[in-house]
Design brief:
The protein is 35% helix and 13% strand. The chain is an alpha+beta fold. Helix 4 (118-136) packs parallel to helix 7 (225-238). The structure holds pyridoxal-5'-phosphate. Residues 3, 5, 29, 31-32, 53, 55, 66 line the site of pyridoxal-5'-phosphate (PLP).
C-alpha cells in the first residue's frame, strides 16, 4: 500500500515492478493526492485500487468520506456490493457480509462542485509551495519535501524536516510557533511504530528520523503571501 504522502507521488515505477515480481496487489493510499500526477498519469490510478479522502482538511472536501477507484470491472462490482450491505445488485438479497459506505446525494453534490474548482485549488497550493521554497527552500537547517522527476505534487501540505543538530526540539518549535499564533502539525510517524500490529517491525531509520523531526506548515489555500512570510520568519528565528 504505497502512500502519496501530503500530495507527493510515491515511486510507482519501483512499487509496480516489485508487486509484479511478487504477485502482489497494489492499493494506493492517494487520500491527500487527488490531482497529483506521475508522468502525466493520476496518482491513485496505478494499482488495483486507489483511495482518495474528502475529509475536512483535504483539498477536495465533502465533510467526510472519500472515493475508491479501480479500472478492473470485477473488482469494481465486488467493491460496490461490499459497500452496499453485500446485497445482490438491485435486490434485497444479502449474498455476503457487507457494510454501508454509500455517499449521499448532498455530499456528492458538494464534491462535484469542488471538482469544478479543483484546478484553482491546485494552482493556489502550488503557489504557496513556491513561496515556501523561495523563503526557506535553501535554509541549511531545513529540508522541504520535494517532487521527484516526472511527478507533479498538489502540495497538500508543505512539510519541513529540521536538522538533528539544532538546539531546539521539533515539539518546542511547534509550541513556540503556536504561541506566535501559527498552527502546525507533526508529520506522521513511521506506521510501524504504532502499537497495533501483531508482528513487530523496527521502523526504518529514515522514516523514524523524518517522523520525529518534521512539521507540516500552514498550507490552506486562503493563505496570503504575507502570511507565509510571517510563518517562515517566525520559524527561521526559532532555529
Ligand atoms: C495519507 C493519508 N491516508 C489516509 C488519510 C485519512 O483519510 P480519511 O480521514 O478520509 O480516512 C489521510 C488524511 O490525512 C492521509 O493523509
Amino acid at each position: 500500500m504505497p502512500v502519496h504522502l501530503y500530495g507527493f507521488a510515491a515511486d510507482m515505477a519501483a512499487i509496480t515492478k516489485l508487486a509484479k515480481e511478487h504477485n502482489l496487489y497494489i492499493i494506493e493510499d492517494a487520500a491527500p493526492a487527488i490531482g497529483t500526477l506521475i508522468d502525466g498519469k493520476a496518482a491513485g490510478s496505478f494499482g488495483e485500487f486507489g483511495a482518495y479522502s474528502f475529509q475536512g482538511a483535504k483539498m477536495l472536501v465533502t465533510g467526510e468520506g472519500g472515493m475508491l477507484v479501480t479500472s478492473d470491472p470485477d473488482l469494481y462490482e465486488r467493491a460496490r456490493k461490499i459497500q452496499d450491505h453485500g446485497r445482490k445488485p438491485g435486490t434485497f438479497w444479502i449474498e455476503e457480509l457487507g457494510y454501508k459506505y454509500k455517499m449521499n446525494n448532498i455530499t456528492a453534490a458538494l464534491g462535484l462542485a469542488q471538482v469544478e474548482r479543483s484546478e484553482n485549488q491546485i494552482n493556489q497550493k502550488r503557489r504557496i509551495a513556491g513561496w515556501y521554497k523561495d523563503l526557506i527552500g535553501n535554509h541549511d537547517s531545513l529540508k522541504m519535501q520535494f517532487e521527484t522527476p516526472g511527478t507533479l505534487s498538489i502540495h497538500w501540505m508543505n512539510s519541513v524536516t529540521l536538522s538533528d543538530d539544532l538546539n531546539i526540539s521539533r515539539d518546542e518549535v511547534m509550541e513556540k510557533l503556536k504561541a506566535d499564533g501559527i498552527d502546525t502539525r507533526p508529520v506522521f510517524p513511521a506506521i510501524s511504530q504504532y502499537p497495533i500490529w501483531d508482528r513487530e517491525h523496527q521502523p526504518g531509520p529514515v522514516a523514524t528520523q523524518i517522523g520525529a523531526n518534521s512539521i507540516n506548515l500552514p498550507s490552506g489555500v486562503k493563505l496570503s503571501k504575507a502570511s507565509i512570510e510571517r510563518v517562515c520568519e517566525s520559524l527561521v528565528n526559532l532555529i
